[in-house]
Amino acid sequence: MTKVNATRTVTSHGLQGMEQGGPTQRSRLERRARRRRRLVPYALLVPAFALLGALAYYPLAYNVWLSIHHWDLTTGMGRFSGTAAYRSVLSPGSPFWSSLVVTLAIAAVTVSAEVLIGFGLALLVNSPRLKGRRVVTMLLIAPMVTSPVVVGLLWRMIFDYNFGPADYWTYNILHVTGHVNWLGEAHSAVAAIMVADTWYTVPLAFLILLAGLQSLPVEPFEAAAIDGASRWQSFRHLTLPLMRPFIAVAVLLRLMDALRIFDNVWVMTSGGPGSSTETLSVRLYRLMFSSGQFDQGAATAVVMTVFVLAVSLLLVGPVVRQSRWEA
Amino acid sequence: MEDDFAAASELLATFLKGAISRREVLRYGGALGATAAAGMLLSACGGGKVTSTQATVDEPEHGSLNVLAVSGIQATAAAKYTKNFSAWYKKVYNQSITVTVTDLGYDPLYAKLAQASLTKSSAYDVVMMDYPWVGQFSTSGYIAALDEYVGDSKIAPPDFALDGYIPAVLDAYGKYGGKLFALPYLADVMMLYYREDLFKKCDVAVPETWDDFLAAGKQLQDVAKTAGGGIVAADALMGARGHENTMLWQQRYYSMLGTRSDTAALFSQNQKAAAVDNPTAVAALQAYIDALNIAPPSATSDDFSQTIALMQQGQVAMAEQWTEPAAVVNDPKSSKTAGQWKTALVPGTKINGEIYRTPILGGWSLAVCDHSSMKAAGFIYSAYMTFVNSLALAQDGITPARASVFQDKGMQSQNPSFATIGASLQLVAPRPRVPKATALAQVSDLAISQALTHQMSAESAIKTIQEQWNGLL
Predict the structure, then answer these.
(1) Residues B95, B22: contact at Cβ < 8 Å?
(2) A107 vs B441: CA distance, rounded Å
(3) What is the pLDDT of residue B30?
(4) What single string gives the DSSP state of each residue in B308-370?
(5) Residue of A nearest to B448 (CA)
(6) Is the Cβ of A270 closer than 8 Å to some Cβ of chain B?
(7) Which terminus of chain B has a smaller tally of CB atoms within 10 A, N or C?
(8) Which residue has the higher pLDDT, A73 or A50?
(9) Is residue B72 left, alpha or beta, with left meaning phi > 0 and alpha meaning psi from -120 to 50?
């Protein structure tokens, strides 16, 4: 009985296979092929991710690992220290906070100035009445192609109290009361860094915004002109809203960069006088490379990365939402 | 790495005997592979090692010697004499050797050494170090004790003797915990530079004490205002944030305290606590701050190179400076005031009727990496560069620590400040050489810079240094 049943069952399955086997097998093969096709892009991404992993994620992971180990350079031994370095870095009164304030102040002023000046220049260059636009554009982006260290040295010479022209300009031409030791006093040193950084990075904002202006549709402006809108009204109600994604991109890119500012500051003031221009990157460099406090330096780097990422995500959100809405 | 290969061979042999399963081979093999890969990665980070053929441990090796130097005159001179050294080595030891010099800036060099010390890298055989680092890297075991080589007649160069070095400099640059770890390569020391013409014109004597220094500066400035002279201020003061501000404070502090010992002045006896919170340290910092009154307004941002520029441009009449500018400021091609600059011992403090001066010692030493397979050759190279070849190096601007060079008539006529350098080196006070010296310097640099720019008082700065040094120690 069992045998018969079994045979029947087998037969039944065999029949099913005979009757429906062709299409089932085909669909199975198709499913398999579809799955394979779906996997192909992922497989193609593997080398890129492997490379990225080795070059970007490994150092990041290594940095986190460094931050949770206390290295005694006298014995060459590292011991697990958990969150001790983070607690020390983030403790009230830690120099991290003053560095954060300096970094935020420099970033806020420079990014605002760069975007405003860059937008102004982009509007000027975008004007159809401007002759020699290419030459003007090339001249305007010249600072961007200079090395940041050269920029630092250049502005250090300009702001040098004894030999640079900055004090001469402010005292003799602008008639500002008293001589200014630009790099030797706390507030003026921060201002000098801001001027140098703005000069160096305005071209990037200018290029992004000029590209944005040149990609704007002409129809709304023509319609506005027919309706009798003034230039200011066109700018206020058309150019600005349409340029918002480009402005956001310029702010985002520059802000990410400004929060990590190092080269100019290091060359011009090394973070001094006192700690008045000690940005987060300068502090990190000093901890890691000048005093061998690897755990503290690595923890500062992790906190800084998280901070920059958080600020960037805050800015990216609206840009993405607007792009989706427009799409 | 060799250990990994040995372990892998042993594992394979055990597997072939059938003592362990394939799964176990894969598991242990994987672990070994990962270790080896990590090892390779770390060695790659540490820089490539040129393999050398080692004769025996106790004899001078042949092969290639990798030297890591600090960028600047130190590395240039080291690179210049590589061929001379190879020829001399062949002649004296009958072995072939090639020397490769790699240079890095100050901070990258320290970072590289710290990394090499942690990974026990043997990428470099001889390393140049700022002498305060000797404490750290000898304690970590990265640099080798050289005592056994000094007394070994097969290894030490002919006529080499430690008592040929200026004792104070050898002690500071090379000795730590009673052992010799490095040989002094470039002996740098603070001197007082002064404009002879202006001092004569203003009838000012070369200052002997720190009080005289301030008074002379004031007199020079007053006369300069009325009778001209072209100076904007009396003294080119290095007040920018950096190591020099700590050194200028220490130079005053040691002399006021009447000691040349960094340990006695700065730390408790066991070196586990700071000992700077005292009125003398505050007075010394105040004396440094007071010097701003006779310095250009830019002093709080002036560093080594900017103060030299002030001297070359004739904008100042004196300066506390290292030995290096002596040639530059008296060179008519680069200085408006060439020929006017003379040197003297730095001022000091009058103690029991005598002037106690403590010129701060700067400079570089050569050490041999303990993980090197060319330790004997590394020691010989260090001895050659610091002792055998010291006269030639002196002519290239590398101030040696070998005492006999200062007696050389040719050098004395070539470099008029050589006598002052020699006299200063006899009186030197070293910077702190405890293992955490670099981290301590970062703290004091910042606090002193804040005091100089009136962001905090001298008392608060010293208290900050005391507290933060205690935290680090």
Answers:
(1) no
(2) 29
(3) 47
(4) HHHHHTT--SEEEE-STHHHHHT-TTT-TTTTTEEEEPPPBEEETTEEE--PBEEEEEEEEBT
(5) A274
(6) yes
(7) N
(8) A50
(9) left
Amino acid at B28: Y
pLDDT band for position A96 (50/70/90)?
A: very high
Using a CB-CB cut-off of 8 Å, the residues of chain B touching A181 are: 297-298, 300-301
Which residues in chain B touch residue A71, judged by CB atoms under 8 angstroms apart? Answer: 118
**pLDDT value of position A323:** 67
Looking up tokens 């921060």 gives A190
B374-385: string of b/e by CB count within 10 Å (b at 16+)? Answer: bbbbbbbbbbbb
Show Cβ contacts of residue B204 under 8 Å, excluding neighbours closer than 6 positions.
Answer: B198, B216, B219, B220, B223
Q: Number of A to B CB contacts under 8 A, please give it.
A: 117
Q: Find the residue in B nearest to A275 (Cα).
A: B446
With a CB-CB cutoff of 8 Å, which residues 133-162 of chain A face chain B? 160-162
> Does pLDDT of B224 surpass 60?
yes
User: Does A181 contact chain B (CB < 8 Å)?
Assistant: yes
Backbone phi, psi, residue B235, to 5°? -125, 130
Q: What is the mean pLDDT of residues B436-463?
A: 93
What is the residue type of B283? A
CB-based burial label for B55 (10 Å; 0-12, 13-18, 19+) = middle
The closest CB to that of B439, out of A269, A273, A293, belongs to: A293
Stated pTM of the model: 0.79
pLDDT digits (tens, 9 = 90+) for B342-365: 999 999 999 999 999 999 999 999
Residue type, A4: V
Nearest by CB: B310 against A162, A179, A275: A162
Contact residues of B toward A, CB < 8 A: 107-108, 110-111, 114, 117-118, 120, 136, 139-142, 232, 239-242, 296-302, 306, 309-310, 313, 315, 435-436, 438-439, 441-442, 446, 449-450, 452-453, 455-456
Q: Which amino acid is at A194?
A: M
Q: Could you tell me if A267 and A193 are in contact, meaning their C-beta atoms sit under 8 angstroms apart?
A: no
Q: Is there a contact between A273 and B309 if contact means CB atoms under 8 Å apart?
A: no
Contact B455 A186 (CB under 8 A): yes
Which site among B298, B369, B464 would you substitute to test the A interface, given the most A Cβ atoms closer than 10 Å to its Cβ?
A: B298
pLDDT digits (tens, 9 = 90+) for B267-304: 998 888 999 999 999 999 999 999 999 999 999 999 99
Q: Give the pLDDT confidence score for residue B194 in this predicted structure.
A: 96
HSE at residue A210, side-chain half, CA atoms within 13 A, is 22
**How many other C-beta atoms lie within 10 A of the C-beta of residue B178?**
7
Query: Do B442 and A288 count as a contact with CB atoms less than 8 A apart?
Result: no
* Residue B119 tokens, joined: 């990974």
Residue B396: helix, strand or coil by DSSP?
coil
Under DSSP, is residue A191 helix (H, G, I), strand (E, B) or coil? helix
Q: Strands B191-195 and B235-236: what pairing?
A: unpaired
Tokens of A272: 């001094």
Q: Is B203 exposed, middle or buried (0-12, 13-18, 19+ CB in 10 A)?
A: exposed
Q: Which residues in A lie closer than 8 A to residue B239 (C-beta atoms)?
A: 184
Q: How far is B446 from chain A (nearest CA, A)?
A: 5
User: What does the pLDDT look like over A247-289, one tens digit per residue?
Assistant: 989 999 999 999 999 999 999 999 989 899 999 999 999 988 8
Supply the pLDDT for residue A175: 79
Nearest-CA distance B217 → chain A (Å):
19
CA distances from A5 to A9, A10, A11, A13, A16 (A): 6, 8, 9, 12, 16
Q: H-helix or E-strand containing A309?
A: helix A294-326
Q: Tokens at residue A138, please?
A: 């090339």
| Closest approach of A254 to chain B, Cα-based (Å) | 28
